[in-house]
């Protein structure tokens, strides 16, 4: 994976039939992802939504090269995460992908300032790459945070710390930013400031942005939102509309309001009409219910 130059273009991600199974300490298997097919183009901004335990963080860990899939392929920047060497995975984690973990404190050295945190975040990059990047102060300036450069972290608000955590995450010039609930625990103003930063790196550097959120307003601020349900792609939102997504095996998740009307096991009939396809519940004799 090339880290020879400071990256200024986004990274594409592709999932082909991805299955992730965890084995618990007690020896039980937990199926977290059950066949995810997904294409995220370079430079896209995507929100991952879904109930707790649906598999969002697992997907982020696979994109970030922290996990390898149990089955299927995760292709990041043209490299198959399940096949690359440990060394290449390490280079991917330090140069290709930037991760903003949930909660600013998990991303930052608490007793250092903004500049030291950015320099620390860049420590694993090859010297040539580090030299090609803007200085920490220049980066803070370009992100509109010049005023935070000299302030110790201990004097900053939660929103300011989160913005520094963001600056440190993107400071490697990575082409893919993965952010796990980057706006949780923030005020509305700080949330909007974080969204503005995500849009800024996407616009200025072409960075692909993938974030996990439980906040529908944050998801609607992204051009594309993907809802994960029970380890599969449930639906997609684009331009304010929700769409079902046909899976490899032809399955489509019903939207929540329809799922209530068609409980599991319901017999359904499909009828082609001039306007599309009609879905109708029938009884065991095939008669309309
Ligand atoms: N290390 C692990 N060992 C065992 N099971 C795990 C592990 N990590 C996650 N799981 C399980 O995998 C499933 C998916 O978890 P994941 O954290 O990806 O969901 P999530 O959608 O991110 O949830 P949340 O919104 O609560 O963060 C859950 O059933 C979870 O309990």
What does it look like?
By secondary structure, the chain is of the alpha/beta class. It folds into 2 domains: about 15-255, P-loop containing nucleotide triphosphate hydrolases (Rossmann fold, 3-Layer(aba) Sandwich), CATH 3.40.50; about 255-289, no CATH class. The chain is built from 9 helices and 13 strands. Strand 4 and strand 5 (about 80) form a beta hairpin. The longest helix has 18 residues, at about 190-205. It is elongated. The N and C termini lie far apart (about 55 Å). The structure holds adenosine-5'-triphosphate. Keywords: ATP-binding, Nucleotide-binding. This is ATP-binding cassette domain-containing protein.
How is the secondary structure organized here?
Elements: E1 13-23, E2 29-40, E3 45-49, H1 56-63, E4 71-76, E5 79-80, H2 86-96, E6 97-100, H3 114-121, H4 127-132, H5 136-142, H6 158-170, E7 176-180, H7 188-205, E8 208-212, H8 216-220, E9 224-229, E10 232-238, E11 241-244, H9 256-261, E12 267-273, E13 276-282
Parallel strand pairs: 3-8, 3-9, 6-7, 7-8
Antiparallel strand pairs: 1-2, 1-4, 4-5, 9-10, 10-11, 12-13
Helix pairs in contact: 3-6, 6-7
The structure holds adenosine-5'-triphosphate.
Protein name: ATP-binding cassette domain-containing protein
GO molecular function: ATP binding; ATP hydrolysis activity; transmembrane transporter activity
Keywords: ATP-binding, Nucleotide-binding
């Amino acid at each position: 994976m090339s880290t020879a130059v400071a990256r200024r273009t986004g990274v594409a991600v592709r999932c082909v039939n991805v299955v992730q199974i965890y084995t618990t300490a007690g020896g039980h298997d937990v199926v977290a992802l059950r066949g995810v097919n997904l294409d995220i183009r370079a430079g896209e901004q995507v929100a991952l939504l879904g109930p707790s335990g649906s598999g969002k963080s697992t997907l982020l860990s696979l994109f970030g090269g922290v996990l390898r899939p149990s089955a299927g392929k995760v292709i990041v920047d043209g490299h198959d995460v399940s096949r690359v060497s440990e060394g290449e995975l390490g280079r991917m984690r330090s140069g290709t992908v930037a991760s903003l973990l949930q909660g600013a404190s998990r991303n930052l050295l608490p007793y250092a300032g903004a500049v030291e945190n950015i320099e620390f975040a860049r420590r694993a990059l090859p010297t040539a790459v580090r030299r090609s990047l803007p200085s920490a102060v220049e980066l803070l300036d370009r992100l509109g945070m010049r005023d935070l450069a000299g302030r110790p972290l201990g004097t900053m608000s939660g929103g300011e710390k989160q913005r520094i955590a963001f600056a440190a995450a993107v400071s490697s010039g990575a082409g893919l930013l993965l952010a796990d609930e980057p706006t949780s625990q923030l005020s509305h103003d700080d949330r909007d400031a974080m969204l503005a930063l995500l849009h800024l790196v996407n616009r200025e550097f072409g960075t692909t942005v993938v974030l996990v959120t439980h906040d529908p307003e944050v998801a609607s601020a992204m051009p594309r939102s993907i809802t994960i349900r029970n380890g599969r792609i449930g639906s997609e939102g684009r331009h304010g509309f929700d769409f079902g997504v046909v899976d490899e095996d032809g399955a489509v998740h019903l939207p929540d309001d329809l799922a209530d009307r068609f409980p599991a096991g319901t017999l359904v009939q499909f009828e082609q009409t001039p306007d599309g396809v009609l879905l109708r519940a029938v009884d065991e004799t095939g008669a309309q219910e």
